[in-house]
Amino acid sequence: MMTDNRDRSLIALILIFAGIIFLGDSLGKYNFNIFFFLRSYWPVLLIIFGFHILLQKTKFWFIVPTIIILAAGYLIYLLLNNQSFYFMPQIRMRIFNFKNLPFR
């Protein structure tokens, strides 16, 4: 019963994260290339879901939702401050195509 709530929470967090990405795209902050992201980073998604499956019945079940919340928070911070992804410039140029920013 408790794992059903945790699964729903994880799905809700993923939907919120995806909503943030698509909202930024529709507001014109950047263009998000979902196909490049999925083609390049599908193993990361498998790892995250694998950790979720392994940890959902342990006392460390909160790790995967925490990682998703932190990633969403960091993305919101970057979008609000019009900062770029300097730590990975090749990803920034392929996944996110920011508009009207000084680094272009």
Written account of the structure:
The chain crosses the membrane at residues 34-55, 60-80. Residues 10-54 form the LiaI-LiaF-like transmembrane region domain. Keywords: Membrane, Transmembrane, Transmembrane helix. InterPro entries: LiaI-LiaF-like_TM1. The chain is mostly helical and 104 residues long. The mean pLDDT is 71. A two-stranded antiparallel sheet has the order 1-2. The chain has one domain (2-98). It is built from four helices and two strands. Helix content is 69%, strand content 6%.
Summarize the structure.
The chain has 104 residues and is mainly alpha-helical. Helices cover 69% and strands 6% of the residues. The protein has one domain (2-98).
Features:
2 strands
Number of helix segments? 4
Low-confidence stretches: none
SSE string, helices as H and strands as E: HEHHHE
The count of DSSP E runs of length 2 or more, i.e. the number of strands, is 2
Q: State mean pLDDT (0 to 100 scale).
A: 71
What integer value in Å does the Rg equal?
15 Å
Helicity range: 55-70%
Structural class: mainly alpha
Sheet with most strands: 2 strands, antiparallel
Strand order, main sheet: write it out.
1-2
**Cα separation of the termini:** 50 Å
Protein name: LiaI-LiaF-like transmembrane region domain-containing protein
Transmembrane segments: 34-55, 60-80
InterPro entries: LiaI-LiaF-like_TM1
Keywords: Membrane, Transmembrane, Transmembrane helix
